[in-house]
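User: Hi! Is it possible to get a structure for several chains at once, not just one? Here's what I have:
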Amino acid sequence: MRRIAGALGLLLAALLPAAAPAQPAPPPAAPTVFEELALAPPPGRPAILPPAPTAPLLVQSPPLLPDAPAPLLPALPPPPAPVPTPAAPVLDAPAAATPRPALVAELSQARVEITTGFTGTELLVFGATDRLIGPQPSAGHGDDVLIVAQNAPQPMVVRRKIRVLGFWINGPSARFRSVPGVYLLTGTRPLREMLSADERTTKRLGLENLPLDSTGIQDPSYRQALLQLKQDAHLWWEADTPLRIAGARLFSARLPLPATVQTGDYRVEVMLVRDGRVLARQELGFRVERVGTAASIADVARQEPLVYGLICILLAAFAGWMGSVLFRRS
Amino acid sequence: MQVYLPIAEMSVDALLLLGIGFGVGWLSGMFGVGGGFLLTPILILIGIPSPVAVASGANQTLGASVSGLIAQWRKGNVDLKMGGVLLAGGFTGSFLGVQLFAWLRRQGQVDLAVSIFYVVVLGSVGALMVRESVRAILRRRQKGAKPKRLHAHFWMHGLPFKMRFRKSRLYISVIPPLLVGFSIGVLSAVMGVGGGFMLVPAMIYLLGMPTSVVIGTSLFQVVFVAANVTVLQAVSTGSVDIVLTLLLLIGGVAGAQFGAAMGTRLRGEETRALLGAMVLAVALSLLWGLVATPESAFVIGPLP
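Assistant: Yes, the chains can be modeled jointly so their relative placement is included. Here is the combined structure:
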């Protein structure tokens, strides 16, 4: 009984934000760490170039090693200073002891929270490289950065609609064993220009090279349809514009997460590409979770379906009765 | 104002849902039906997955019908005995209907099945209602028409297990009400409707109940069958979205009161003709959805 009462309380709480539109949605990804740093250069260190004041800080601060687990930034809203600022500029010591990492990257947040007002968000991936990246005015093209974010693959079924007696019905189907629910790719250049076809295939990079094995009907059009529909739903995305580069060493990209993003763990791979080959890579992760009332409702519905169903009945009946009392016209 | 639906796992405009609820509630208040037959197709149309639309639609119908039931109960327009018999059939029907729904979902044919159910049921009911009410209007206009018999006798009245329903002034076999209740239960589970739009004509034309108790008794059956469907859907498919339901209800109960005030000014035949035309229109639009060439030749979904 207590459990039912508790669950009822949760759902009643859920009703309030749903009914009260004034509740402010939590700030999405912004303001990002990146911008914070850029806005406030450390005292005593004047900004040299407007977009690049953080470059020396990021490249040289030792805590950001590529293999170290991602220093989990506390979830926004309160964005604290994420990088422990060295008391004095560390210029020589670490560089002499260990080779400087070719690539460091970080995410703006380790958690994406789905609240009752969630409408999708953007996740910022940022970092710096040792050598120059992006198009160079003097010597052609520097190194490239490639970012791929995806979640755990799951089985999916693609059905072709066929016409039977004038009606369109779901006909033959192909089952794909492992389909990433979300696949987002961006880089300093289009993937085709960055990596050779061989490298793309062996590393399975890009939407064209996803390992989509299917059972059932064997027909390339099913795979094509899957690609198309996933992209239409903004769940799969290959950026057509290059990510942002500042000072030829800093990069930042915004990964768009649609409102339909699945909950769970996501993996973000940041790769450094030189001469068509992947030279260094760093793996980051974030988690998409329902929080607050949305989470409570989904939890109750999944764990206690019977209780949830009964609560739904009571709430609906109560709302109906309340409405008739409030809006009675007699 | 976007709101995230936790079960449907998508965000929709809360004002849109409130508006849909209000519009459907207004119509349903006017005609004295739950409005589920309009609501579920509209929800599917705005992109809510069919299972969630059906399950939440049933839940919404329950809420929307409660106030009507209370009002009718106060006026003494509920035939409890008839309601109980209908309900016995309704519970059995909704139980089987939810099993059927879960099976269809596994087959990947849930959208098709829901649409076909709607087209067939709404099409035939709408056509019958329009035909009947137009006839009634014409008959009323003809002076000196033959006095109508109370109700016609046909094979149904020869069935066994007769029972006396005092409030309905009927002495009939329990088999027809049981069957009516059963089919409404199945429809309620598969279509996410209360079934009032079918129950009312079935009670009038098939069972021959007096119009005064029809609305109250049908609401009685609708409330309890919808409650049953809500629980069964929550358990077997887990697709009842309470946030969606409540948003629709808030708009719906407000709209229903305005609609009811307007409905009292309409005459019976005209009301039925209008309702029939509306039912037909929904059926035709869904039929169009089945026949029209789809935007994409493929659909994707999680492996059931």
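Chain B has a mean pLDDT of 81. DSSP finds ten helices and five strands in chain B.

User: Great, thank you!
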